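Intein-containing protein, Candidatus Yanofskybacteria bacterium GW2011_GWA2_44_9. Tokens?
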Amino acid sequence: MAYVLGYWYADGSIYPSARGSYLSATSIDREIIYKIKDWLKSEHTIREEKPAGLNRKTRFILRIGNKSLYNALRKLGIYPSKSLTVKFPNIPSHFLSHFVRGYFDGDGCIFLEMRKGITRDRIIKRLSAIFTSGSQNFLVELCKLLGRSLKLKQSKIYRGHRSYQLRYFTSDSIELFKFMYGNCSRGAYLTRKFDYFGRYFKLRPQKLDVSIKKILDKHGHVAK
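Tokens:
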């Protein structure tokens, strides 16, 4: 459930209404919303919302009316209209990797920066793993925790137009991969993002070590 809490901190919300207390999670990735529904043992219908416009993606929305879950999330630090002011919660160390993976699947991304090589072939310049939040305080605390736990090099938060970003580059991103996926059950993540890491290691096999190979093999990737 630490994963689900992390995801809710990223792409979830809670709100009271005259008819009850509700929680909602939204994603353009159908897979993760259905997984969360299953993990919560919810029987609620997932709604599909198709925005107007050629390049707009369908959004999948899970809306649950449940006062007990609502109150539980309130106690765990989530509140209505949290996006700009939310603080990093107190997560036990043995749950931290699951929480971070859940947050990454909600408001994180992985990026392969490419450049032309001498022979004009495109080669990888670097790997980036990025966490985004409207709350600078949240990312500052996340940065401190990851720095202490994994001895990561990054310590700068970047300010964008509407949000803040915590960016990790190649060596730190590889350590994050080991941290987020090294102790999780198969499928307890958004496949698309895990596969992106797998693509990087396929293109840069020299970065593989024993622990990375073990993770890739466990989750069905062939480590070469």
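The chain has a mean pLDDT of 91.
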